[in-house]
Amino acid sequence: MTQQLILNLLPAPVPTLDNYVPGKNQAAIAALQSCEPGRAVYLWGPPGAGRSHLLQALGFADHALYIHHNNANRLLQTLVEADVIDYRRIAVDGVERYDDEAQAALFALYNRWRESASSMHAFALLVAGDRAPMHMPVREDLRTRLGWDLVFRLELLSDDERGQALQTRASERGLHLSPEVINWILTHYARDMNRLSQLIDALDHYSLARQRAITLPLLREFLAHEDATALAAP
Length: 234
Description:
This protein is of the alpha/beta class.
């Protein structure tokens, strides 16, 4: 079997609410789980707190739509121009990166959300940015709307919680990580859970390609390998 085939054996787990480790963010998770059409939630917090994970978990579900800043202009404009919005949940990510056109469309979508909240065409609106609504670098009328309903600040995980998250990620890929490996990663690697998850996925591929168990020597060899430099912490 070629190395490329080996690397394609185990796709990365898709984001779900179940594989998100909440830490101090239980209230936000509970609000998302119970968010019905007609309600809105705004999530903010530092990189690595899981904003995109949560929005993708909900936005990629049935009767839902996930919007990233790369496709925001097109998708948001399509929504606000539609006679009827058929989605029950719309997840809008990375608002701090939206240009003027996307901000105007999101402002219009918030108005559609409020107008339809008590109708049969109601939808839940989930939005995320990197800072609190009043500090967002967006137009003033949109800044106000970001705080219209529920707002939650997502907190980063503690070291113990990050260790649990790493074990969960590894278990989903059928991996066993020893306490020695976990402790080394937490001590020497990035704190951002997105980067840590990338590390586990890439380490899985590396160990499969070499048909070796994941040990501390293999981890150090992997991080020294030129293919791992893009993942290394700054």
